[in-house]
């Protein structure tokens, strides 16, 4: 019985590792420290793989059917802050949130939701803490793998940046 249990555990471990390595949208994480406080984002990072991502015929169309994007793939994008933050005029108390993006119209709006733990396609607007306009730009070359960056920019300030395909969207924040 112990042998069967050991073999089963080994197969599950190998299978899980293989699944994560070969996963189309593997887990990713961005974190930084601003004003001595940790800020962290957990998301899934898809790749372009020859597809059109943004626009009318894209995977993330921003049309009336799907105007809100989960800011990644798979599960909802999880945002944790140990500091009280402000994004523009939006006050974000320390705690756990989910990030979404309103991709239509341009410029995009970062949505910070109080709802947590849901699958990425389960968006409920009534749970929004608020929305912040993002600064839009284009990368010098197309970006194959979706990436979120959290960057300290000096003092109590930082920047959150989403980069994928031909889009870079960012928003500044301040820690209190």
Return the string of H and E elements: HEEEEEEEEEEEEE
**Span from first to last CA?**
57 Å
Average pLDDT score: 87
Number of contiguous helices: 1
Q: What is the domain total for the residues?
A: 1
What fraction strand? over 45%
Backbone CA Rg: 18 Å
Structural class: mainly beta
Protein architecture, described:
By secondary structure, the chain is mostly beta strands. It has one domain (25-175). The chain has one helix at 2-22; strands spanning 27-34, 37-44, 68-69, 77-81, 85-87, 90-92, 95-102, 109-113, 128-133, 135-137, 143-154, 157-165, 167-175. Strands 1, 2, 3, 4, 7, 8 and 9 form a 7-stranded antiparallel β-sheet that branches. A hairpin with a 2-residue loop joins strand 5 (85-87) and strand 6 (90-92). The longest helix is centred in the N-terminal third of the chain and has 21 residues, at 2-22. The radius of gyration is 18 Å and the shape is globular. It starts with a helix and ends with a strand. Mean pLDDT is 87; it is low at 3-20.
SSE map:
Elements: H1 2-22, E1 27-34, E2 37-44, E3 68-69, E4 77-81, E5 85-87, E6 90-92, E7 95-102, E8 109-113, E9 128-133, E10 135-137, E11 143-154, E12 157-165, E13 167-175
How do you describe this structure in short?
This protein is mostly beta strands and 176 residues long.
């Amino acid at each position: 019985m112990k042998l069967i249990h050991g073999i089963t555990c080994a197969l599950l471990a190998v299978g899980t590792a293989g699944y994560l390595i070969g996963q189309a949208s593997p887990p990713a994480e961005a974190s930084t420290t601003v004003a001595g406080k940790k800020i962290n984002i957990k998301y899934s990072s898809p790749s372009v793989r020859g597809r059109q991502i943004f626009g009318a015929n894209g995977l993330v169309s921003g049309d009336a059917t799907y105007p809100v994007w989960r800011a990644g793939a798979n599960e909802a994008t999880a945002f944790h802050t140990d500091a009280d933050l402000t994004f523009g005029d939006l006050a974000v108390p320390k705690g756990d949130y989910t990030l979404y993006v309103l991709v239509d119209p341009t410029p995009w709006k970062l949505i910070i939701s109080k709802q947590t733990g849901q699958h990425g396609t389960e968006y409920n607007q009534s749970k929004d803490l608020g929305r912040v306009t993002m600064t839009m730009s284009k990368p010098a070359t197309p970006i194959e793998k979706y990436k979120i960056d959290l960057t300290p920019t000096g003092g109590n300030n930082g920047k959150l940046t989403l980069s994928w395909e031909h889009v870079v969207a960012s928003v500044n924040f301040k820690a209190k």
